[in-house]
Amino acid sequence: MTSYKSARLYIIGAGFAGQTLAREIKAKEIFGEVVAFLDDDPAKIGHSIEGVPVLGPIKDVARLLRMNPADEAIIAIPSASREYLRELYQILKKAGFEKIRILPGISQIIEGDAHLIQTRSIDPQDLLGRTPVAIGLKESLSYLRGKRVLVTGAGGSIGSELCRQLLSGGAQRLYLLGHGENSIYQIDRELRLLQEEGVGEKATIVPIIGDLKDETYVDYIIGKLKVDVIFHAAAYKHVPMMEENPVAAIENNVFGTENLVKAARKYAVKRFVLISTDKAVDPVSVYGASKFLCEQLVLSASQEGGSHFMVVRFGNVLGSRGSIMPLFQKQIEKGGPVTVTHPEARRWFMTIPEACSLVLKAGGVGENGKLYLLDMGEPVKIRELAEQMIRFYGFEPDREIKIEYIGLRPGERLDERLWSEEEIPVETEYPRIRRVERKEAPLVDLPKLLEGLRPICRFDPSQANQYRDKVLLRRLLHDFIPTVIIPKDEHNN
């Protein structure tokens, strides 16, 4: 096995990012030796950059390797399209590279230096879907400079990526709030390491362990920290699991959000951004209903004045914890089958970095009391995504790795929608960010519904018989939000 120190490296791309990486590798030595740049630019091929030869064109890499061997390739072309990356990956794999690393997308480093610590092994999410929009982070995050910023669910897939990108924002303090000790430890450690390596700016990072369901604690922490901006990404989100645990979904997502909104209003938090989901549109599941109610809580708070409360809604993200891509990967590694709910099931997909860049942008330009949609492009059949992933790992779908259809799970539907019939998406001046206008206000009596749900989620001696009654909870949701489906086995209870 090749050690780090003896590794011979090709850097694919002899531009600014590639040159920055080469200098860093040379300075630290322990990460191996850059033996060549690989590029398609005729003006660069045949020349040297700081003593490192530039070889090319890239399609000839197999021939070039025979003359100038290497163990590993690092793709340093942050502006590369998905189509180009797919082509490049196939060329490098066929040439014999077993280890291929990649820099993060352009949204993360377009205005900053590339660093070796940012590289990671290439995976399917780098190659699937559309090319992300380029967001200049420093410009987009200027509204956060010198501010105290809190991210809830900071250890989750969305929350942790928000934190990584927030390093570029010039925030005075970055608070990482979550109830999972391990996940908060991991993102805290990662951010500090990134800072040590020169990524981002020197915000003070503060990890915080706490539960949004604890109203007293939430009030205390928001007041004590003097928070300026909140990005609320914390939520229970796994649809089938929340169908099995509907009380937990409402207790955590809805009443946790209510606690946070109350505290934000009380202590005059300047901006509050809720991360929402397409499953909140005409919700059929308890999870979807919980996020719909979260939207209403935040938008209702905007009417009080003094602060900016807004919602950003989007669909599925590629590679999030517990999503289908990690599941497909594990199934492929075991030799299959890869399980898909339905051959016609479709979902929108966006990369986590792109979604977070757009959330942060919307947080700065968004208006109080508005709901924003991220343009997800065209929906993708999950079956096609499974086929692409199988091919990524070098297998033929249905011949070497079988695809098995298991039927829709509780709370799922064939297609998701980003807006309802009562909502009108309006283009904004910002790429891939739309504003939602409503034909009419939602007909849900929010205070009355919350009053009915409260004794189910929080023990009240005067209504002790209602505590944790999931059948009653689901019926209440259905009464106020008729699209919510009551399972067949609960109809007769």
From TrEMBL:
Domain of life from the UniProt record: Bacteria
Family the UniProt entry places it in: Belongs to the polysaccharide synthase family.
Protein name: Polysaccharide biosynthesis protein
Pfam families to which the protein is assigned, alphabetical: CoA_binding_3 (PF13727), Polysacc_synt_2 (PF02719)
Domain Polysaccharide biosynthesis protein CapD-like: start-end pairs: 149-436
CDD domains membership: UDP_invert_4-6DH_SDR_e
Cross-referenced Gene3D superfamilies: NAD(P)-binding Rossmann-like Domain
